[in-house]
Design goal:
By secondary structure, the protein is mainly β. Among the domains are: 156 residues, 7 Propeller (Methylamine Dehydrogenase, Chain H), CATH 2.130.10; 97 residues, TolB, C-terminal domain (Neuraminidase); 97 residues, N-terminal domain of TfIIb (Single Sheet). 8% of the residues lie in helices and 36% in strands. It contains 10 helices and 50 strands. The strands form 13 sheets. Strands 3-4-5-6 form a 4-stranded antiparallel sheet, with no helix packed on it. β16 and β17 form a beta hairpin.
Length: 619
């Protein structure tokens, strides 16, 4: 299209073959232009129809140390950082200074005032904030690696930060992250760090427990708890709880280092998080991969599952990822009884001491995920947008007022029946005006899965259409000569390309390009001279592919270039392509350009992330 499509931004997904075995990275959306129910026997049920819009995938949740006063919490949702100051009733995405495309690894909040935060990334080092997360700055001076696995603010000294490399080693800062010095070499890999009564404890992926009594300057191996990665730790002066990936939970006496297996009564031994209950030295709460929340009030001797209000999504099982993640507790837990739990299906909150849960919204249904501008905007002043879930809207006065336009896009019509559905089908993905909108009044909008809508009366009503093959991430591309050739292309996240030559009334599968780019969106462009040169470009497995026969056949133009391995590719074509043969492709690694229709590519700009990574590799 010739006009910007605005999509909700997300952490990028690498080519699946290149995903690190170190971490299961949740895949999310991509920006293109700029932006249980439980029975008495504790048997899970998957969530009923429309009880939840698409899952929010909350991987981290952290609370202010003064949560009971300021009601402030932070959540990493689909790889984005969100903040609430009203206990989770509303959330705002934090972006100021977080100029990175690399996945977030870990967030930490200082436990003195809550003013200082640090955020680790897999490739861009560490970002720090000194104003409750409102703005961020890079903090990499002295780091040995930019691929950070763990970042931890030491509770007993808020000036001290520890950062563990994803491939090993530990750096330490004593000035809130302004500078770093190496404390441990890369022969030691840290998977988690916690403090208890002045002693720092750390675990690794072999099940080894280490300790430090000098603020992380030096570490001593203490024992191997069990042959399983340590996933979480909680400690005070009397006990250290060690959570493991497959062998459950263990209680360690910090003085004698005696190990006690405390898994009796736990059905799921894949522990994701462990916390000691504030105000109750014998109370401990855990979350597990599939089961949810379990609480013990006798130091792990006995356990009770508390799953009421928690839900699961079958897609987590399909993706082989955990249903539940981190637990966060209010420092005033004894009185306000407040706990939060992250999960694949969203964020949960309890004000009943973790014994009953309710899901709270982090990612609003009304977030705009796609937008287009009428090609005759100067005269008709028309804009169109679709939201994350539930709304297609049009403005005819330059965005001053908006009208909901859902006639023909009702839930039963989209589902094809009145039965409850697994998810709200009004999950929209793209929207586009016809280049001849002033005459034909045609607009298209796509769903995330398989179906798309077409209007020929300026969005007053919609007709429903479907691809003949199930596909995800439907992206629109209309011919610049749509009024004459009626040609429409739809690209998908599996490399499937469909074409219509009858104005979108029906589409046929045209091509299958190789695709291992996860949830990256399929960026496509069409030549302004398509009527004669029949040229298209699209992103697929080895970068940018080109067709000169209206999409029937494709050739990679970037297979042996750096573009082939770059993340988050987005392609744009010159409006004078017929004369200058120019195409641009942006990526995680920077901006590339061809002036010979893809025969050769030159890097025009290197991203700061790529430059930093190269500098660290060379050093």
């Amino acid at each position: 299209m010739y006009f910007s499509k605005h999509r909700l931004w997300s952490r990028p997904s690498a080519k699946m073959a290149g995903l690190s075995n170190r971490v299961k990275r949740q895949l999310g959306w991509v920006t293109l232009s700029f932006v249980l129910a439980v029975t008495g026997a504790f048997i899970w049920s998957f969530q009923p129809a429309q009880a939840h819009r698409p899952h929010d995938v909350v991987t981290q949740i952290k609370l202010s140390p003064s949560y009971n006063q300021d009601q402030t919490a932070y959540a990493v949702v689909r790889g984005n950082l969100f903040k609430t100051i009203d206990g989770g009733d509303s959330w705002r995405r934090i972006v100021n200074g977080l100029d990175t495309l690399t996945p977030f690894s870990q967030l930490t909040v200082d436990q003195a005032t809550g003013t200082q935060l640090a955020l680790g990334t897999h490739g861009d080092g560490i970002f720090v904030s000194n104003d409750h997360g409102e703005s961020w700055q890079r903090s990499n001076d002295g780091l040995n690696t930019l691929d950070i696995g763990v970042v931890y603010s030491v509770p007993s000294d808020s000036q001290v930060l520890l950062a563990a490399g994803a491939d090993g080693g530990l750096s330490r800062s004593t000035d809130s992250g302004r500078t770093w010095t190496s404390a441990v070499d890369t022969s030691q890999l840290f998977s988690v760090i916690a403090e208890g009564d002045g002693t720092l404890w750390a675990g690794d992926k072999t099940g080894q427990l280490l300790s430090s009594n000098n603020g992380g300057l030096s570490w001593q191996p203490q024992l191997t708890v069990v042959d399983s990665p340590i996933t979480a730790l909680a400690a005070n002066g009397k006990v250290v709880y060690v959570a493991t990936a497959t062998r459950g939970l263990f209680r360690i006496d910090p003085k004698t280092l005696d190990i006690l297996d405390i898994n009796k009564g736990l059905e799921d031994l894949r522990i994701q998080s462990v916390k000691i209950l504030p105000g109750n030295s014998r109370g401990v709460i855990i979350s597990s991969w599939d089961r949810g929340v379990s609480i013990s009030l006798d130091s792990g001797e006995t356990w009770t599952d508390y799953t009421q209000g928690l839900t699961k999504d079958k897609q987590a099982d399909e993706l082989e990822t955990h249903h539940f993640s981190e637990i966060a507790l209010s420092e005033n837990f004894l009185d306000d009884k407040t706990a939060f739990l992250g999960g694949f299906n969203g964020l949960y909150k309890s004000t009943q001491s973790g014994q009953q849960w309710r899901e709270i919204e982090t990612l609003a249904r009304g977030v705009v995920v796609a937008m287009d501008v009428s090609p005759s905007y100067a005269s008709d002043q028309t804009l169109a947008l679709s939201t994350y879930v539930g709304k297609i809207m049009v403005s005819n006065d330059r965005g001053k007022t908006w009208q909901l336009t859902m006639n023909g896009a009702e839930v039963p019509r989209l589902n094809g029946n009145f039965k409850p559905s697994y998810q709200d089908p009004r999950r929209f993905f793209d929207i586009a005006f016809s280049p001849d909108y002033a005459v034909d009044r045609t607009i298209f909008t796509t769903g995330l899965w398989t179906k798309f809508l077409r209007s020929t009366n300026g969005a007053k009503s919609w007709s429903l259409h479907s691809l003949d093959t199930e596909a995800r991430g439907l992206t629109l591309l209309l011919s610049p000569n749509f009024d004459a050739d009626k040609t429409l292309f739809i690209g998908t996240q599996k490399g499937l390309i469909f074409r219509s030559t009858n104005g979108g009334r029906s589409l046929q599968k045209l091509a299958q390009l190789p695709w291992e780019r996860g949830n990256d969106s399929p960026s496509m462009v069409i030549s302004p001279g398509f009527a004669t040169d029949r040229t298209l470009y699209v992103v697929a497995e080895t970068g940018v592919y080109k067709s000169t026969d209206a999409g029937k056949s494709w050739q990679s133009t970037t297979e042996n270039t750096p573009i082939a391995e770059a993340w988050n590719l987005h392609v744009e074509i010159s409006p004078d392509y017929g004369q200058d043969q120019t195409v641009f492709v942006s990526s995680y690694d920077g901006l590339f350009k061809t002036t010979d229709a893809g025969e050769s590519w030159q890097q025009r700009l290197r991203s700061q992330t790529a430059a930093n990574s190269l500098q660290h590799r060379l050093s």
